[in-house]
């Protein structure tokens, strides 16, 4: 049987803020425009944010976290514009994404977030406060009881603004004391929270631990069956996708992710370190893992993402943020028989099978791959010609890592070979 997954998308269930209408549906919460933009150097203009939001809607994202409205006037305006436009554009299937604004747990932030998102058909306020001992002691300088009181009052306040959809995050949940988490989460549910997001803020947990954390929260928190549980996994140990999958396996039905895995990191790491550290929350990986293995291993989980738009969205974010993604690896095996190494097809994520579109020739590419690509470009070589060219191609590949179509054409033109 073919290892290739089916292309037929499953129907997206109706959106109801505090109810899961299909128990296997995993909502995609995209925070590229909020957490992603917090990557050093990844600042986006309002126009770029709007373009990305439109593209995210096309991709089929359920919730777009458009920004942190209290952070700056520009961010406020960008979120408001996205709420007014993308948040009111119903697609051909009758779907419109939720537009979300982040806020700390204080009235001013929450009011500002509401002022920005309220124009959307489906507005959401996402409010957070830290719950780990270390954050309570050094950052908030507050007792556990005080933090519960603030969280409860602020979720109630957000609901009082007539916002039906309120998400709460206990920041640094990965290092928070369990009993305390169950207690604060139970209190915010009573106050009206509709989604509980569990952030592994410092990326410290292992997949088995994170899965267990979600499972324990689901077992021990009062009222949790009435709300959506969510994951938000950082990549400090390179485990964010694995942790997110583990969380979904344990019952989380929303996952927070960014395009190309861009995202925030505390501290003063250099840009290079931050970039490599923060290839986090990659939903290209998460969504494709769910698509490839969801049915068999993960109990039938599925998302509403139209994977054919992944590459386009990734390229747009790469260009606008200036943060490069990892180039593709050599894929010669794929050319002999698609199933040999390929568990998903390039077309499925919106790539064409062409060199420019992303199938990169490099120093590990073989003669077969080189001949194929040259044929696609219109150059038909006999064995002797190919042999000559192959060694020159290898020399270029040693220096350049990625050999583009332009390089190949230059190489062929140097020889007598003409199309
Ligand atoms: O990493 C984190 O804890 C966050 C929260 C605001 C969700 O970004």
From TrEMBL:
The keyword Transferase applies. It catalyses: 3-methyl-2-oxobutanoate + acetyl-CoA + H2O = (2S)-2-isopropylmalate + CoA + H(+). Residues 26-311 form the Pyruvate carboxyltransferase domain. It comes from the Eukaryota. One of its GO terms (biological process) is L-leucine biosynthetic process. Keywords: Amino-acid biosynthesis, Branched-chain amino acid biosynthesis, Leucine biosynthesis, Metal-binding, Transferase, Transit peptide. GO terms for molecular function: 2-isopropylmalate synthase activity; metal ion binding. It is found in: Plastid. GO terms for cellular component: chloroplast. It is an enzyme of class 2 (transferase). The keyword Metal-binding applies. Pathway: Amino-acid biosynthesis; L-leucine biosynthesis; L-leucine from 3-methyl-2-oxobutanoate: step 1/4. Its EC number is 2.3.3.13. Belongs to the alpha-IPM synthase/homocitrate synthase family. LeuA type 1 subfamily. This is 2-isopropylmalate synthase. It comes from Arabidopsis lyrata subsp. lyrata (Lyre-leaved rock-cress).
